[in-house]
Amino acid sequence: MSCMSLAVKAQNKISDDNKSLLWEVSGNGISKPSYIMGTFHMICSKDFEIKPKVTKALENSDNLILEINYTDSKEMAAMQKMLSSDQKISDKLSPKEAKELDAILSEYGTTLQNVNSYSPQALYSLISTKAIPCPQTEVKMYEIELLKKALQNKKHIGALEKVDDQSHAIGGAYTLKDAISQLKMGNEYAILAQKMVESFKKEDLQTLDRLVKDKRFMNKDQEKIMLTDRNKSWAEKMPEIMKNQSSFFAVGSAHLLGDNGLINLLRTKGYTVNPVKNQ
Predict the structure, then answer these.
(1) Is the pLDDT of residue 4 over 50?
(2) Are 18 and 199 in contact (CB under 8 A)?
(3) In whole angstroms, what is the distance from residue 246 CA to residue 223 CA?
(4) 34 - beta bridge partners?
(5) Taking a C-beta distance cutoff of 8 angstroms, is the pair 21, 273 a contact?
(6) Rounded CA gap, 198 and 75, in Å?
(7) Can you say whether the dihedral through the CA atoms of 194, 275, 59, 269 is positive or negative?
(8) Helix (H, G, I), strand (E, B) or coil at 78
(9) What is the crossing angle of helices 205-212 and 186-201, to 10°?
(10) Residue 242 and residue 31 in contact, taking contact as beta carbons nearer than 8 Å
(11) Which pLDDT belongs to residue 142?
């Protein structure tokens, strides 16, 4: 077989292997397999589905481990605190910049006066209102729906990081100026989000990974702060969590692929990480 043919076969194998959002982690001394699922944090209910293989894996696991623990009241209080700022947004801008931001916010159905006490992180989160083409009452969060199932089955709930860690990452990656720049691209985000949903529903992680890392929305520095650094931190914590109990990790899909993705980081630690196919 020619080198070219071998290369094509290898590429096809990688592509086929990535057609899953759910991955089984085994080997390296753990007694029972654990699982990693790539989620879509917020999605319209018409596009939402928890597949039988996910339900089965969660049922077979002792723990549900999320990015942050939504059952911890202290963490939820920290999240509320993260969304507000002691300093008004308008105080950080020139009158001209404030006027421009007010015009941008009108496209989001609000005004600078309404969001003046928001933190840059909260301001950035407004983008989701453009990116999700359905009313808030029809929005589903995968983490919350998985959490409901886990609590019904009396699973232990854990987390890979604290809200403060997440806040620090977002704050480091997206300054106020960055957030405003991203808000200007609301319509482009809407187009991107639709493509991401389509890839997510097909379990096409390769395409989803490419879309998430589009340089228009995430530069290399932001990728390092939001993905790489956090992935490396999580990959250090996961072995101890998996050591004695089977765990189901649910994290944003963007954290799975690439040299610094969780799949590769766990493989380099000696674990076998394989896709779980639809049943």
Answers:
(1) no
(2) no
(3) 30
(4) 25
(5) no
(6) 32
(7) negative
(8) helix
(9) 160
(10) no
(11) 94
Tokens of 109: 């159905």
For residue 251, the one-letter residue type is V
**Whole-angstrom distance, CA of residue 19 vs CA of residue 138:** 27
Residue listed under structure tokens 């097909």: 202
DSSP H stretches of helix in 153-278: 163-173, 176-183, 186-201, 205-212, 220-223, 229-244, 262-268
Element (H, E) at 64: strand 63-66
User: How far apart are the C-alpha atoms of 278 and 50, rounded to whole Å?
Assistant: 11
How far is Cα 152 from Cα 149, in angstroms, rounded to an integer?
5
Q: Residue 12, by phi and psi: left (phi above 0), alpha (psi -120 to 50) or beta?
A: alpha
β-pairing, 272-275 with 247-252? unpaired
Q: Which one, of 69, 51, 63, lies nearest residue 248 by Cα?
A: 63
Residue type, 186: G
Encoding tokens for residue 266? 């766990």
How far apart are the C-alpha atoms of 55 and 93, rounded to whole Å? 48
Phi-psi region of 33 (alpha: psi -120 to 50; beta: other; left: phi over 0): beta
Considering Cα of 124, then 129, then 133, then 138, what sign does the dihedral take?
positive
> String of b and e for 119-128 (b: at least 16 CB within 10 Å)?
bbbbbbbbbe
Joined together, the tokens standing for residue 239 give 């072995």
Tokens 């990452």 found at:
169
pLDDT digits (tens, 9 = 90+) for 172-191: 888 888 889 888 888 888 89
For 107-148, the pLDDT digits (tens) are 888 999 999 999 888 888 888 777 788 888 899 999 999 999
Is the model more confident about 217 or about 45? 45
Whether the Cβ atoms of residue 68 and residue 75 lie closer than 8 Å to each other: yes
